[in-house]
Amino acid sequence: MQNTKDTARGSLPAVKRGLLAFSRFVYMVGIQSIRILKRFSRRCVRFLRPLFRFLKRLYRATLGKQIEKIRKEFVSVRHGFSIAWDRIRKARARGALRAAGESLLVTGRGLVRHKKIVGLLFNIAAPVVALFFLVQTVQYWNSLEYGLTLSYGDQTIATIRDEQVFDQAMEMVTERMVHDTASENDSTISLTPVFALKVMNSSQYTEATDVCDLLIRQSNGIIEEATGLYMDGELIGAVRSSADLNHMLSTILEEAVGDDTECEASFLQDVEMVTGLFPSSTVISADEMKQFLTANETEEVSYTVKDGDTPITIAQEHGLTLDELNALNGGNVEQLMFAGTKLTLQREVPRLSVQITKTETYEEEIPFETVTKKDDTQYTDYSKVTQQGKNGLQKKVDKVTYVNGTETKRENVSSTVLEEPTDKVIVTGTKKRPLYTGPGESSGKFQWPVPSLKVITTNFEYRWGSFHPALDISGYSAYGKSIVAADGGTVVASGWGNGYGNRIIIDHGNGYRTLYAHCSELLVPTGTKVSKGQLIARVGSTGNSTGPHLHFEVILNGVKQNPLHYVSP
Could you say which DSSP state residue 451 is in? Predict the structure, then answer.
């Protein structure tokens, strides 16, 4: 303990010495830094002093001299204003006329005396005033609205906003002059416009549609008043009577609707009628227009491959040949036959598509749900339907959209439940079956009921006009062979049964029962709890039997099952 204290005492002076040395180091660094900075600043001053003196002399000789003159001149002006004000004040006492004369006199003398400062101020103010007037002039002319006067020959046709309006009008002219139904001798318009800039009001501008009519009037072609039909902005043709064109469009919608008066019909494309001037060669009758619009054209559509589809079936369903289907899909349609793959097909659709929206009311089943309930008193292989499921019924109202007769969209509007569904209830056991099964306990698995006989003479099948719901088991010297319980359980019937002869029924406690019929001898009475593999009877030919054999049935919840699903020889 003493040594520790001595060590601690000895270490304190060492720490102090270290701190003292560090502080001296910092002090020396600071002192030297200050000395270096002072030395640097003195040298900079000695170096820059001549430059500062030169700049000072230059300033005094040039700009400084002028500023000093201006300063003295302003002092003189201020003193002159004081003297002039005193003289005007004294003259005002003698009368207003004398004051006005004195004012003009002192003003003239002041301008003559201080003409240098007046000239300087004028030289400064004149450019500022000129710049101000220039800005105001530019703003004035920019605020005006300009347009173009369009002339053809010596005649002014229209006043337009800009050249783009003329370009739009010429496009309209071209659309009207060129049409699929026009003859080869259609006229074309070739105009060389002359534009002139003019100040005008925006209310004087002519729209592109009116310019189009004016341009056609300037042409040498034959024109007439008609109503043009535009579909998605493209001119289809013109009809002389707008009433005939409107009636034709209404007829197309009515034919698509048929007897369904509650549906809504409209054109899928944007259809617009425009009345104006059109070349006579582009004007057709309403019937010709209808025939043109209702004619079919081919368009490509997408088809999603489903399970079971083949190239041939897809082609036949859509009116194509196998070669056409291959050509549309790169020639390798065989390699695309996977569910979910998109194929390209073709279909015929009218040029003018009709969209119909209607409300459809129908009844639809509501699927029942399956509810599983647990029963901890039954083994895990136990399963029993305690309530059969039943579908419910609901009334649905859908808003459905059809395009050219094909459904494209369906939206449910309302659903009303008419009959609630009934859940299917299945009870299953949760109790784990023991590895060893004693009397009355089921193992959950069946064994072959006649160990010494393996021949199945009749299966679970139709026979002699009726269904045989069991296995008939027989073989060499079958009479008297041992019959054992297929699984543990309780004998619920042991005795004579109509058609079965001597028979035994065992309830295995998990929804399953087994039946053993046509026995020659019954070895267990009703109520006996038997183990799996226990001897219960012997093979015979009692009841409706043509020879010694065992009639073996497996019954699940009252429904007879195929025994071969549970046992094998």
Answer: T
